[in-house]
Design brief:
Layout: H1 2-28, E1 34-38, H2 79-87, H3 95-100, E2 108-110, H4 132-149, H5 152-161, E3 163-167, H6 170-177, H7 185-188, H8 191-211, E4 216-220, H9 229-232, H10 244-267, E5 273-277, H11 279-288, E6 297-301, E7 304-305, E8 312-313, E9 327-329, H12 337-349, E10 355-356, H13 360-363
Parallel strand pairs: 1-2, 1-3, 3-4, 4-5, 6-9
Antiparallel strand pairs: 5-10, 7-8
Helix pairs in contact: 2-12, 8-10
The chain binds 2-acetamido-2-deoxy-beta-D-glucopyranose (NAG) (2 copies).
Length: 366
């Protein structure tokens, strides 16, 4: 009786030891922090501080979020919030709150600003915003704060292991190229040349961030903008279809973004890692077989007014739909948290078609 029992105890003991070793290894491979550069899809409250029409710090935004309306453009969490859960990081503070209220910066900062684009001018029709170049300046300001908190060697390691997520480009189309009356470049550039213009600007700023010490970049694709309730509401697409010419235009940009990722990976040695997050592909997949994901409403906003509830986006105290988890779109432009959760999970553990050339979980181990 005693022998097998003690064997069992030993085995259990060994098992516990090895689980603990695995824990330690996993621990060492986590991202110490996350820094987010982007637009309204990932903003968590920076625009609350700005004079802008692109704000969401009012009900019913955040109706399913524990803190209510915070400036997230969702009924609940954003992709970044879910990604943070997956990599074991807390909700990030918006940059403005780190400046104004001294919120902690040691787990990362979110610089994203609704209406922001890769080009400085994009989104100016909506008021103030932190464009890409301003967001990079804001990161520099965080960096000088970090320098006061850790020595040079520690800071280098911290930045090198941190995850950078960049999500931009939508506003360079929706709030620039696709409004020719306000933005003359639409007639000056064809979609190939315009995508080149965007990618060249993007590359310059990514390189600046890399030179400042950041190493692990997740660069998100632009989604199928022609499928947004707002674009469908324009009525130029056949019933039940997305606006094809807009999606084609976005795909031109995304293809060039993949080439940029390849170039950056070729030019910089490990542990520098650049990853393409194929939100376009995931979006299209979900739109093609919504039932498999539990969605019944694919082309209208849960909160909004007019055709497809997308002509006018969600306004203060508007009444949203009740079955929010069955909607892909929360308002005229932004997805629900049910959708965001799927995208975050696929960025974290998805295959090559979701995240190229590796997923976020693998990025942590580089
Ligand atoms: C138009 O293109 C030029 C480059 O030729 C660029 O510098 C400028 O930012 C663009 N303007 C707008 C409004 O996007
Ligand atoms: C990669 O390196 C080549 C050759 O030095 C250079 O021409 C190109 O601009 C670089 N690209 C990026 C995105 O760093």
């Amino acid at each position: 009786m005693e022998k097998p029992n003690s064997g069992l105890v030993e085995k259990t003991f060994l098992l516990i030891i090895s689980i603990c070793l695995i824990c330690v290894v996993v621990e060492a491979e986590e991202f110490p922090a996350m820094f987010v550069i982007g637009d309204s899809l990932v903003d968590c409250g920076n625009n609350n501080f700005l004079r802008s029409f692109a704000r969401s710090d009012f009900m019913p935004y955040g109706i399913d979020f524990y803190a209510g309306p915070t400036g997230r453009f969702s009924n609940g969490k954003t992709i970044i919030d879910f990604l943070g859960d997956l990599v074991g990081l807390p909700l990030l503070p918006p940059f403005e709150a780190t400046i104004t209220f001294g919120r902690d910066i040691l787990k990362g900062v979110n610089y994203a600003s609704a209406a922001a684009g890769i080009l400085d001018e994009s989104g100016r029709n909506l008021g103030d915003r932190f464009s890409l170049s301003q967001q990079v300046e804001n990161f520099k300001s965080t960096l000088s704060q970090l320098k006061r908190k850790m020595d040079e060697r520690k800071l280098e390691e911290f930045l090198g292991k941190s995850l950078v997520v960049m999500n931009l480009g939508s506003n360079d189309y929706i709030n620039n190229y696709l409004i020719p009356s306000l933005y003359p470049n639409s007639s000056r550039y064809n979609s190939q040349d315009y995508a080149d213009l965007l990618i060249n600007h993007y590359a310059i700023h990514i390189t600046v961030l890399h030179n400042l010490g950041l190493r692990k970049f997740l660069l998100a694709a632009v989604g199928p903008l022609g499928c947004l309730p707002n674009q469908i509401a324009t009525g130029v697409a056949p019933p039940g279809k997305c606006v094809a010419f807009i999606n084609d235009m976005v795909e031109v940009f995304n293809k060039k973004l993949i080439s940029l990722v390849d170039q950056l990976n070729a030019n910089h040695t490990k542990p520098s890692t650049f990853v393409y997050g194929n939100t376009y592909g995931v979006f299209t997949d979900i739109l093609n077989r919504p039932d498999d994901y539990g969605f019944s409403e694919t082309d209208k906003g849960c909160c909004g007014i007019g055709k497809n509830r997308g002509q006018i986006t969600c306004l203060p105290f508007a009444m949203p739909c009740f079955n929010r988890d069955q909607y892909i779109f929360w308002d005229a432009y932004h997805p629900t948290q049910a959708f965001n959760q799927i995208v975050a999970q696929r960025a974290y553990t998805g295959g090559l078609s979701d995240c190229y050339p590796m997923n976020v979980k693998q990025m942590a181990q580089v």
